[in-house]
Amino acid sequence: MDTNTKLVISTLCTSFFTFQLLFHFVSYWFSAKVSPGFNNLSFEKKIEWNSRIVSTCHSLLVGIFGLYIFFFDEATIADPLWGQSSLATMNIATASGYLISDLLILILYWKVIGDKYFIIHHCAALYAYYFVMKDGVLAYIANFRLLAELSSPFVNQRWFFEALKYPKFSKANVINGILMTVVFFVVRIVAIPPLYGFMYSVYGTEPYRRLGLIQCSWISTCVVLDVMNVMWMIKISKGCMKVISLIRQEKANNSLQNGKVD
Q1: Under a CB-based contact definition with an 8 Å cutoff, are residues 39 and 47 in contact?
Q2: Which of 11, 80, 93, 206 is most open to solvent, judged by the fewest CB atoms within 10 Å of its CB?
Q3: How many angstroms separate the CA atoms of 94 and 104, rounded?
Q4: 185's torsion region: left (phi>0), alpha (psi -120 to 50) or beta?
C-alpha cells in the first residue's frame, strides 16, 4: 500500500468516525449547553438539528481548507488536472468521510430527515471524489467544488432560527437570510461559468486526453451537482423575495397606521 493510499484511507476513516461521534454524542451535549431551546425540541427536530450541526462543522472545515488550496496550493494550481498535494487529498478524503457518514445517518433516520436530492448529491460527489483519491487527478477542481460548502452554515443557521421560533423579521434572521442568498449565489452559481470555461479550455489537450473515462465522470457529476445548485438557488431566491415583499408590506401598514401615507 503506497503512502497516498494510506493517507486517503486513514483520513477518510478518521473523518467518518469523527462526524459520527459529533452527531450521536457531541452535538447533544454542546447544543444543550449553548442553546437552552434545544431541550424543548421534539425527537425529530433534535435529529435534524444534530445533522445540521455536523454539516456546519464539515462545511467550515473543508471550505476553509478549500479556500487555502484554491489560492496557495502551488502543486495543484500549476496543474489543475494532474497536480497533487497531501493537503488537497486530505481535504477530499475528509469530505468523502463526511458524505459517507451523512448517507448512513440519512438512511438510519430516513422518516425524519430522508431526502432523495441529498442522496443524489452525496452519491454524485462520492463518485467524483473516488477518482481524485484513487488516481490523484483533478484535485484542484475537486477542492474548487468544495468551496460551495461555504454556503451551508448560513442555510443551516436559517433552519436553527426557524426551529427555535425566531421571528422571521428579526434582525438576526434577516441578516442571515441576506448572507445566505449572497454566499450561495457566489460559491454555487457564479462559480459555474469559470468551471465550464476551464473545461472548454483544456478540452482536447494532452493532459485532458490522459484522463480517459474520467472525463465523462468529471463532466457528468458537475452537471448533476450544478443542476441541483440552480434548483436550490431558485428556491432560496423565491424565499428571499417573499421575505422582502412581506417586510415592505409591513412597513407600508405601519406607515398607514402612523398616518404617514399621503
Answers
A1: no
A2: 206
A3: 16
A4: alpha
CA distance 59 to 164: 22
- Secondary-structure percent of the chain, ordered helix, strand, coil, rounded to 5: 85, 0, 15
pTM equals 0.93
- Are the beta carbons of 219 and 199 closer than 8 angstroms? yes
Determine the Cα–Cα distance for residues 148 and 156; give it in Å rounded to an integer: 14
pLDDT tens figures, 150-207: 999 999 999 999 999 998 888 899 899 999 999 999 999 999 999 999 999 999 999 9
Write the single-letter amino acid at 232.
W
For 113, 170, 243, 251, the CA distances from 162, given in Å and listed in that order, are: 16, 11, 14, 22
12-21 pLDDT per residue, tens:
999 999 999 9
**Could you tell me if 84 and 139 are in contact, meaning their C-beta atoms sit under 8 angstroms apart?**
yes
* Residue 204, φ and ψ in degrees, nearest 5: 85, -10
Q: Taking the chain, what is the end-to-end CA distance rounded to the nearest angstrom?
A: 79
| Cell numbers at 34, concatenated | 449553548
**Cα–Cα distance measured from residue 203 to residue 207, given in angstroms and rounded to the nearest whole number:** 9
The position carrying cell 461559468 is 193
Cα–Cα distances in Å, from 3 out to 41, 73, 216? Answer: 46, 20, 28
59 grid coordinates:
462545511
